[in-house]
Specification:
heterodimer, A: Immunoglobulin-like, Immunoglobulin-like, five-stranded antiparallel beta sheet, B: Serine Threonine Protein Phosphatase 5, Tetratricopeptide repeat, SH3 type barrels, two-stranded antiparallel ribbon, 56% helix
């Protein structure tokens, strides 16, 4: 197998391993959500049951609620990848048609998913009687559309009365006659105003609807409104400036529709399809009607644990591990699910948490809808026990239920754990050690008493500073010592290098002069005086090059000692130096006028021996 | 010479056996008698005269605890530990009071957790030592007739240690135990999303909770919170650990 194909297999395997199991690695879960919790008789509401982590589920054949006609309307599947984590989900849709007014509870449904039974949360639907009872618009099934106009813009607010902080679903619908289709929505739709906040709007849902016998291309934007003050609040009106394509009809000259110029409506009807009609873009101005909200303040005397959450929620909690030692961390996962203002859903409060050390929780919100008002917020809190325990503290969460019009406090079920008391908490160790080691100014503290330690009676003479060490002068003064050492090292090395250089130059000069003399001593025409003077100088140079003795200070004995020669050679050196001195200082040219070859050979051999 | 040595020794012994500070002794006596405010005043007098030591802040923390102010008690325990990181009594009381007051702690990140074995000063000294070792080894290599692989490895190792120690010192100084560490000393403090009392709450901060001050704007401080979020708190609500 080639290296390339092997790498391909490795990469493909890694991708498969990274994606396929991840889709089903998590435990399957199920949520259910209504697209609106408020409706009127005859106004359809969508119920969606979302199963995550599985490809299919066994759904209940029938959901029966007296007063509601609930029918299965289809399923869709979705595959998501986020941060290299994949998830697969199936959404089962039901259409609910309210048959009468009232508050209806859709009971939890049991689903079989991957061999397990999962339960949907209970849902509540409020149905008002007739038009205008609950919605800020005059009916959803029949929007206020002027048939004479080719486009409409309407704002649908699900309620006319609400509480401060309550999330109210709102829809903005933009419709265009299919004869004048939209080319662009220009700057889109913006819902702003005083006294409320809105959720971020996602991309609109497109559809073709028939209104008053006309076909419209509709864009539906979903959001939610949350009032921030009590009183009467005006929402809208909304303005939009979309660009539509308007068909061009020129009656003055024959067109492709009416080649004979008969102005016969037959041709217009025949070529009625806008796809074939010549058209031009035109910006139009649309304005919706305003909606009014009557906002009530939250009742007084809210529980201390109330953090502003308004809606309808449920709470579940679990802990891992359930067996630990004192001081070991236990992660408590609390899930708050439901519908409401999740931005105000804060971490649950733990009751009876004496003997527990609590760390700040982390939180994560997963929305079930496009608007972010329905979903699950998960809090993970790490607790560690300071003493032996058999139960975790109870997690509580308080919210205001606008349907019940009262504050509701949810409490987790009892979470049983086993905290073994074998190992004492780490932080207790220094306290116990210190108690035993030091005399106490205050009364000694018993081991189990939760009290602080004693006072210290000795105050050190040396004061200390908070400033970091590099902000203190002493630190930088201390750096002078190694700096001086480094500078000294540099100077020493520099002097050493310079000295070595001088010595090398001296040696080179000596060697150069010795080589010159060696060549001169080969010449036959030198007088005995010059020859012997040169020979003795050559001995001096050789000795000086081997030691640090100056050349002029070298005599026969010094040279003999430097080279460690035998006695005979020493005597020959003495004779050489003596004859040289004799000829140099005698003042005359004693002896023959030239050096014999034997004498020259003898001197050269002597010089060769000096190594 | 002998006289000089004897003089130095005598001075050292005298210093070691110095009389205890009368203000400190009086404050301790007041504490033992249950006059905690009087004890606080005495300790504060020493703090204002810059006679700072871990023991002084520890005793002051105890006095604040007895006086019923766990926020200021925790602040002074933190100060004691800032001066002497291994002060056993301050560490014990800090944990105890923090548990009782349910104060929140800043969580160190993963890098800071690995650096828990030393403080910023120790890393700074290690960086300085490694720097000079690098300099000497480099100088020796420059002047050497033959540059061996061993000498090069010594230079690289010392410079790596220097860089790591300097980075660690910086991380410690800017981390949860660094210069910006402050302790909430007031009751009912909420970190908010904006500089207004009416703005939304980010986190409720019990007295003694740790925050890291990032910047200050007027009467408000922008802080890093124990839950990893950021928010605004009144500037007077928290006090820096470092004086």
């Amino acid at each position: 197998m080639s290296r390339l194909s092997f790498l391909s297999i490795v990469v493909i395997s890694a991708v498969v391993l990274a994606t396929t199991p991840a889709a089903f690695a998590d435990e399957p879960s199920v949520t259910a959500v209504l697209d609106s919790s408020e409706a009127m008789v005859g106004q359809p509401v969508q119920l969606q049951i979302k199963v995550t982590g599985a490809r299919s589920a066994t759904m209940p054949e029938q959901i029966g609620v007296d007063g509601l006609d609930i029918r299965y309307s289809g399923e869709s599947q979705s595959f998501e990848m986020q941060n290299f984590q994949t998830s697969y989900s199936v959404i089962y849709s039901y259409t609910i048609m309210p048959e009468r007014a009232g508050t209806f509870r859709i009971p939890p449904q049991i689903l079989r998913v991957a061999g397990k039974s999962l339960k949907t949360p209970e849902l509540t639907l409020n149905v008002a009687n007739g038009r205008g009872g609950g919605s800020a618009r005059s009916g959803r099934a029949a929007p206020a559309v002027d048939p004479a106009k080719n486009a409409f813009l309407e704002l649908v607010v699900a309620k006319t009365t609400a509480y401060v902080g309550e999330m109210i679903p709102a829809e903005i619908r933009l419709g265009f006659n299919t004869r004048t289709p939209a080319e662009s929505l220009a700057n889109g739709i913006d819902l702003t105003g005083q006294g409320f906040t809105t959720q971020k709007m996602r991309d609109p849902r497109q559809a073709i609807e028939t209104v008053h016998g006309r076909s419209y291309q509709t864009f539906t934007f979903k959001t939610a409104i949350s009032p921030v003050r009590a009183g009467k609040i005006d929402v809208g009106p909304i303005e939009a400036h979309p660009v539509v394509r308007v068909p061009q009809v020129n009656r003055n000259r024959p067109s492709i529709r009416d080649p004979f110029g008969l102005n016969d409506p037959f041709f217009d009807n025949f070529f009625n399809d806008p796809a074939f009609a010549p058209s031009m873009p035109r910006q139009i101005n649309l304005k919706s009607e305003a909606a009014t909200l009557e906002v009530k303040p939250l009742p007084p005397n809210a529980p201390p644990s109330f953090s502003g959450a308004v809606g309808n929620f449920s709470l579940t909690a679990e802990a891992r591990p359930t067996t630990a030692k004192i001081g070991d961390p236990i992660t408590v996962t609390v899930k708050i699910s439901g519908r409401g203002n999740f931005d105000r859903v804060s971490a649950p409060v733990f009751e009876n948490d004496s003997g527990w050390h609590k760390y700040p929780p982390s939180s994560q919100f997963v929305a079930d809808d496009d608007v972010g008002i329905s979903g699950t917020k998960t809090f993970e809190t790490v607790l560690s026990a300071n003493e032996a325990k058999d139960q975790l503290p109870t997690a509580t969460f308080t919210y205001f239920d606008p349907l019940k019009e009262q504050y509701v406090t949810l409490r987790s079920d009892a979470l049983h754990v086993r905290i073994e008391g074998g190992a004492p908490p780490p932080r207790a160790t220094p306290a116990a050690t210190a108690t035993a080691a030091r005399p106490a100014a205050s009364p000694p503290t018993p081991a189990k008493q939760q009290d602080i330690l004693y006072q210290l009676n000795e105050l050190p003479a040396r004061t200390e500073a908070f400033a970091p060490v590099w902000q203190r002068p002493a630190f930088w003064i201390a750096q002078v010592v190694p700096l001086l050492g480094l500078v000294g090292y540099f100077l020493w090395q520099w002097r050493k290098a310079r000295r070595n250089n001088r010595e090398a130059r001296r040696l080179a000069a000596l060697q150069h002069e010795a080589a010159q003399l060696q060549r001169d001593l080969q010449r036959p025409d030198a007088s005995p005086r010059e020859y012997l003077a040169g020979a003795s100088r050559a001995v001096q140079l050789k000795a000086a090059a081997k030691t640090n003795i100056p050349a002029h200070a070298v005599d026969a004995d010094v040279a003999a000692n430097v080279f460690g020669v035998d006695e005979m050679t020493r005597n020959r050196l003495r004779e050489l130096f003596a004859r040289s001195d004799e000829l140099r200082y005698s003042g005359g040219g004693n002896g023959s006028t030239a050096v014999s070859p034997e004498q020259r050979q003898e001197v050269l051999e002597l010089l060769q021996q000096l190594r | 010479m002998r006289a000089l040595v004897c003089g130095i020794l005598a001075a050292g012994v005298a210093l070691a056996q110095a009389e205890p500070d009368p203000v400190f002794t009086r404050a301790n006596t007041a504490y033992a008698a249950g006059h905690f405010q009087q004890a606080i005043d005495g300790y504060q007098q020493l703090v204002q005269s810059h006679r700072w030591s871990a023991s002084l802040f520890y005793n002051l923390g105890n006095a604040w605890y007895r006086a019923g102010d766990p926020g200021k008690a925790l602040l002074n325990y933190e100060r004691a530990l800032a001066l002497e990181p291994h002060h056993p009594e301050a560490a014990a009381n800090l944990h105890l009071v923090r548990d009782q007051s349910r104060a929140l702690e800043l969580r160190p990140d993963r890098f800071e957790q690995y650096l828990a074995f030393a403080n910023a000063n120790q890393f700074a000294i290690a960086a300085a030592v490694a720097f000079w070792l690098t300099a000497f080894a480099a100088a020796a290599m420059v002047f050497a007739e033959r540059r061996s692989a061993g000498k090069l490895a010594a230079v690289l190792l010392a410079s790596a240690v220097c860089i790591f120690a300097a980075a660690a010192s910086y991380a410690k100084e800017t981390g949860p135990d660094g210069a910006g560490l402050a302790i909430v000393i007031k009751q009912n403090i909420q970190a908010r999303v904006a500089t207004a009392d009416t703005s939304g709450s980010v986190l409720a901060l019990p007295p003694g909770s740790e925050v890291k001050i990032l910047s200050t704007r007027g009467d408000w401080s922008y802080v890093f919170l124990p839950n990893g979020a950021r928010g605004w708190i009144p500037s007077g609500a928290a006090e820096l650990v470092r004086l």
